[in-house]
Amino acid sequence: MSDFASGFVPGRELSRAFYAEVVRPLLGRLPHGAALIGPGSEVLAFDTERSTDHDWGPRVLVFVDPPEVAGLAARLEGALPDRFHGYPTAFGSDRAPARHGVVVAGFGAWARDRLGFDPRGPIGTADWLGASWQRLAEVTSGEVYHDDLGELGRARANLRWYPEPVWRYVLACQWRRVAQLESFPGRCGEVGDELGSVLVTARLVEDLMRLCLLMRRRYPPYAKWLGSAFARLSGSAELAERFTEALAARRWRERERHLSAAYEGVAALHNRLRLTAPLDAAVRPFFDRPFQVIGAGRFADALLAGADPAVRDLPPAGAVDQICDNTAVLADPALSSAVTRAVHPG
Q: 170: closest CA among 134, 206, 130, 201?
């Protein structure tokens, strides 16, 4: 038995012990997969003591062949404890409904519900673009405890990161988002709209943070954990300081100075990827206006110039997170797919 010290126990640690001490002995020789994946801050290792106040506790997903699902779920229902090491095993969310910390499912059905497709086989471009970054992070993060069936390992390997053509396209579309706004902090400030300048700067900082994560092959999580995920990137401290200073600046010229330093840092990261020939990483005037920009469209053009025609010719809108930020859409694979296919009908 685990001997947890008093105080907060991270969900990954708690769930690992729950599987080993309670769930695994109940499964006997039944071939299965077991993991902590899916929704929940503990899957991304962002949970804290605050997380325990609702919909949190030891939980495990058990994947078996579809004909075994109903029988195993019924068998476990009466065998699982109400509490484990002081934490309740039943809570009212979609993470572990009615199974006392255990969800029993066939992997294919579970994955289609979470992503809109089965990642054990080939994944098409439309599937990649229609899956939200949060959902992709949830399936590729967490921990796998057991994988007799080989499904978890195969699916997670397939989803680990975009194929290079899709990656190039998503990066290019993220640079396009920066290009759409990069002159606006100065333009707003020039007419005395410092609040508007701050708001646009905040949007640029958010897009640049996501761009950095994408360049480092990390699926950006949703807004609550974006800053935490960015802080975990090695070498991100200097950029984080520039972003913070840009947002804290009281005047647009100062804001532009810090944002320019951030632009140049992100451009240097792009050059280190070697996906394109090196591009000038210095800021420059926005046409003949007195606003300093990085010329983000240059990076998008260079990325797509070397891309597969199948993605190069797509509309420059990107994946679903780059098209829409509505949680109701991003959390629903059917809606995410519908939005993406409306933009990419081919």
A: 130
3-state helix, strand and coil shares in percent for the chain, rounded to the nearest 5:
55, 10, 35
Specify the DSSP element, H or E, that contains 288. none
Per the confidence metrics, is the pTM higher than 0.90?
A: yes
Angle between helices 133-140 and 151-159 (to 10 degrees): 140
* Cα 274 → chain centroid: 23
Rounded CA gap, 11 and 323, in Å? 32
Helix axis angle, 151-159 to 107-115, nearest 10°: 20
Say whether 157 sits in a helix, a strand or coil. Answer: helix
Q: What is the pLDDT of residues 43-102, one digit of tens each?
A: 999 998 998 887 788 999 999 999 999 999 999 988 999 889 888 887 655 544 445 789
Beta strands in the chain (DSSP E): 33-36, 60-63, 83-84, 87-88, 102-105, 143-147, 284-286, 289-293
- Return d(Cα 121, Cα 158) in angstroms, integer: 8
Distance separating alpha carbons of residues 198 and 251, to the nearest angstrom: 9
- Angle separating helix axes 252-273 and 194-215, nearest 10 degrees: 10
**Among 127, 110, 118, which Cα is nearest to 73's?**
110
Residues 6 or more apart whose Cβ sits within 8 Å of residue 324: 330, 339
CB-based contacts of 326, cutoff 8 Å, min separation 6: none
User: 137-167 burial, b for 16+ CB within 10 Å, e for fewer?
Assistant: bbbbbbbebbbebebbeebbebbeebeebbb
Q: Encoding tokens for residue 285? A: 């005037």
* 155: nearest Cα among 24, 331, 37: 37
Decide: 194 and 252 in contact? Cβ < 8 Å. Answer: yes
